[in-house]
Structure formats: C-alpha cells, structure tokens
C-alpha cells in the first residue's frame, strides 16, 4: 500500500473525519446490540482485547519488578514467554491484515482506502516498535548476571519502550476498530468475503 504521511501514530487523536462516516453510522456504544457483531467483527474485537490484555500484563509485570515485588530471575522467567507470545501474535496478526483483510476491505469499500493505508503505515511503525521492544527486553535479560544498577537501568529502558509500544498499539487498535467493525456491521462477513 502507499505510504501515508498523515499524522504520526503517537500524535493523532483518531481517524480523520472523512473516514468516520461508517463509525458515525455505527457508533461503538451500539456495536454489541447489532445483529452482525457475531462472526468476524466479534473475532476482531476479541483478538484486540487479547492484545490489550497482554500489553497490560507486560506493563504490570515490569512494574512489579521495578517495585521489588519480583526478583530479576523470577521476572525474566515470567516475562520472556509472555513477551514472545505477545510480539509473535501481534506481528502475525498484522501480516494477515495487511495481505488478506485490508485489500479485501479496500475492494469492498474503496472510499476507505486511505484509512487502510493509514493502518498499514501504523503496522510498519508498530513493527519498528516491536523490534525496539525486543531489543530492550534482550538487553535487560543480558544484565541479569550484572549489578542491580545495570539491571534497573535496563528495566527502565525496557519499560520506556514498552510504554511507547502500548501507546502506539492502543491508538492503532481503536482506529482499526473504528474503521473495520462498522464496515463489517454495514456489509456483513459474507458480503465482504471474509466469512
């Protein structure tokens, strides 16, 4: 998809108004009452809730370590599998969206093409954040045999990267839902070719 130069993922407050016409027709507070919320729309929301939950879990875990409720080795044992799960699933989810769903949705509703280009650009930004997050996590784990000061410094660096990633992800997930869920509710899974 084409590169989008609109506002940064960390700076924007939501989708541009010209892309919100379906979100205005199907406001978030009415989604659960809509008969089309089953199927793909429900799966999409569940997957996003999982990412929010995992992100919150990682944030809480690093907080527990930084506040002394977990030792460095205990935290590393707890942290590594959860981080790998989070990063792997998020990257896989974005690949499926970029190569399967976004093209199908763009074909179904060409007026939303720029919105899918924005979401695709977000994925590239988030992927860079995933890489920085993994590097910061690995740097922290490498300090486990070093002084407490080095461990704390590395934990702080990871926490900063994690907070940045979670902020980007939070904005992206909300914008993606505001574009995709109303489209699914409007057209239905079958009409979009995603049932």
Give a structural overview.
Helices cover 74% and strands 0% of the residues. α2 packs antiparallel against α5 (148-187), α3 (72-108) packs antiparallel against α4 (113-142) and α4 (113-142) runs antiparallel to α5 (148-187). It has helices at residues 21-25, 39-66, 72-108, 113-142, 148-187, 189-192. It contains 6 helices and no strands. The longest helix has 40 residues, at 148-187. By secondary structure, the chain is mainly alpha-helical.
Q: What's the total number of strands?
A: 0
Our estimate of the beta-strand percent is under 5%
Helix/strand structural class: mainly alpha
Average pLDDT metric: 87
Strand count, sense and barrel status of the largest sheet are:
none
Uncertain ranges: 1-6
- Give the radius of gyration: 19 Å
* Silhouette: elongated
* Count of helical stretches: 6
Layout of secondary structure:
Layout: H1 21-25, H2 39-66, H3 72-108, H4 113-142, H5 148-187, H6 189-192
Question: Brief overview, please?
Answer:
The protein has 195 residues and is an all-alpha fold. It contains six helices and no strands.
Keywords, separated by commas or semicolons:
6 helices; 0% strand; 195 residues; disordered N terminus
């Amino acid at each position: 998809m084409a590169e989008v130069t609109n506002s940064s993922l960390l700076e924007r407050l939501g989708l541009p108004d010209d892309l919100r016409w379906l979100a205005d027709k199907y406001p978030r507070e009415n989604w659960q009452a809509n008969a089309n919320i089953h199927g793909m729309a429900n799966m999409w929301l569940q997957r996003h809730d999982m990412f929010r939950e995992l992100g919150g879990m990682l944030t809480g875990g690093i907080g527990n370590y930084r506040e002394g409720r977990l030792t460095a080795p205990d935290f590393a044992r707890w942290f590594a599998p959860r981080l790998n799960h989070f990063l792997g699933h998020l990257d896989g989810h974005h690949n499926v969206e970029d190569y399967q769903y976004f093209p199908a949705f763009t074909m179904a509703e060409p007026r939303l093409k720029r919105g899918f280009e924005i979401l695709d650009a977000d994925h590239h930004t988030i992927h860079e954040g995933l890489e920085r997050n993994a590097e910061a996590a690995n740097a922290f784990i490498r300090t486990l045999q070093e002084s407490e000061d080095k461990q704390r410094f590395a934990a702080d660096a990871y926490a900063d990267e994690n907070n940045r990633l979670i902020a980007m992800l939070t904005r992206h997930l909300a914008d993606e839902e505001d574009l995709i869920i109303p489209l699914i509710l409007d057209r239905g899974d079958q009409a979009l070719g995603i049932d």
